[in-house]
Amino acid sequence: MKKINVAIIGLGKISGIYLENITGMFKDRIHLVGVVDLVEERSREIAELYKVKQYASVQALLEDPSVELVLNLTTPQSHYVLCKQVLEAGKHVYVEKPLSLSAKEASELVDLAQEKHLVLGGAPDTFLGAGIQTCRKLIDDGWIGRPVAASAFMMNHGHESWHPSPEFYYQAGGGPLFDMGPYYITALINLLGPVQSVSGYAQKSFPERVITSEPKHGTVIDVEVDTHIAGLLQFNSGCIATLVTSFDVWKHSMPRIEIHGTEGSLRVPDPNTFGGPIFYCRMGEKEWTELPLLFDYPENSRGLGIADIAEAIERGAEHRACGELTRHVVDVMESILKASHEHVQVQLSSTCEQPSPRR
Fold first, then answer.
1. Nearest 10 degrees: Cα torsion 214, 216, 218, 220
2. Tally of CB atoms within 10 A around 139
3. What is the pLDDT of the chain when averaged over all its residues?
4. Residue 248: what pLDDT?
5. CA 266, CA 260: separation in Å to the nearest integer?
6. For residues 304 and 317, is the Cβ–Cβ distance under 8 A?
7. Residue 1 in this model has a pLDDT that exceeds 80
8. Are residues 122 and 26 in the same domain?
9. CA-angle at 184, arms to 298 and 201, nearest 5°
10. Residue 359: inside a domain, yes or no?
11. Which of 47, 168, 178, 205 pairs as cysteine with 54 (C-beta 3.0–4.6 A)?
12. Predicted local distance difference test score (pLDDT) of residue 353
């Protein structure tokens, strides 16, 4: 198949696995053309290591006619502006999560991509891995009957104990919902379909955080965002899910994701990973049974979403980690916060198709 030529904007921490997989695992579908970063030395090192172009600026990258798709790995505050710039330059774009910081901006990007007949895609692509895809097949094949309830928990005590520069996670655009929520919500939409309405509560439990990691040990962070969010999601199918994301929990024993149906229950693996384990309990049984993975890509396969785009373009089909899906995820997150702040139930303004399963 024809490879898609990709260039990367932003070479922070997450770029390492993308670079590794684009030039290794997916090299038959993706060709890395070049890179650019605000830190010139960093982009020079990467360009030399991977023997690709080092662009002097984002504009220089966008003016390169050999670049077909831009991988936007910048911080979330820049996602909307840069994705818009890429689309206006006539190139496809795939962006790290979230697509933008508001549903309005996300919709503008979806509309612009459609207007220009370009592909807009976004992370996470973890739902395309062996773990979530196996769960999708089990649900589609009726192992738990009709899904009626679900729960999802992402809880820890924040990033200040390990991240070298954790300030962003407590500023606008950060927080546990916008940081980690896309993994959980995307997985739930893949398994259960689009969300119809939400309600929720959110709070900022600590006004300040103290960094205990290096090199900023002892630095005090002012917390701007809610750090404990509890949401209720009603899906178009009628299934009701509980979602809790928190940076205020020291330790817990709650499952990552569970789906409960009329004929059984399914424990879904961590949606921030591509693999397992998966546990199943049929109605009438008392213990969980671990099930094998039925698909490929159980390892860290970031970049799989771009490879899926390459295949979709080749076949003239729809790719799965699409703009409509990523917009719907942003809408769900924004609506949960709105529900909390305004004390209302919120009907979603967007929807999307349930992504097609991998075969």
1. -140
2. 21
3. 97
4. 98
5. 6
6. no
7. no
8. yes
9. 165
10. no
11. 47
12. 97
pLDDT tens per residue across span 105-158: 999 999 999 999 999 999 999 999 999 999 999 999 999 999 999 999 999 999
- pLDDT tens sequence across 140-154: 999 999 999 999 999
pTM (predicted TM-score): 0.97
State whether residue 120 is helix, strand or coil.
Answer: strand
Q: Determine contact, residues 121/93, Cβ cutoff 8 Å.
A: yes
Is residue 154 within 8 Å of residue 242, measured between CB atoms? no
Where in the sequence is the domain holding 100, given as residue range(s)? Answer: 4-126+303-319
Together in a domain, 46 and 102: yes
DSSP string, 183-214: HHHHHHHHHH--EEEEEEEEE---SEEE--SS
CATH number of the domain bearing residue 110: 3.40.50.720
Crossing angle for the helix pair 79-88 and 103-115, to the nearest 10 degrees = 10
Residue whose entry in the numeric block shows the structure tokens 């933008």 = 100
- Helical axes 40-50 vs 15-22, angle rounded to 10°: 20
Q: Cβ–Cβ contacts within 10 Å for residue 140, how many? A: 11
Looking at the structure of the chain, the number of domains it has is 2
We report the CATH number of the domain holding residue 330 as 3.30.360.10
Q: What does the pLDDT look like over 300-328, one tens digit per residue?
A: 999 999 999 999 998 888 899 999 999 99
φ, ψ at 333 (rounded to 5°): -65, -50
Same domain for 134 and 111?
A: no
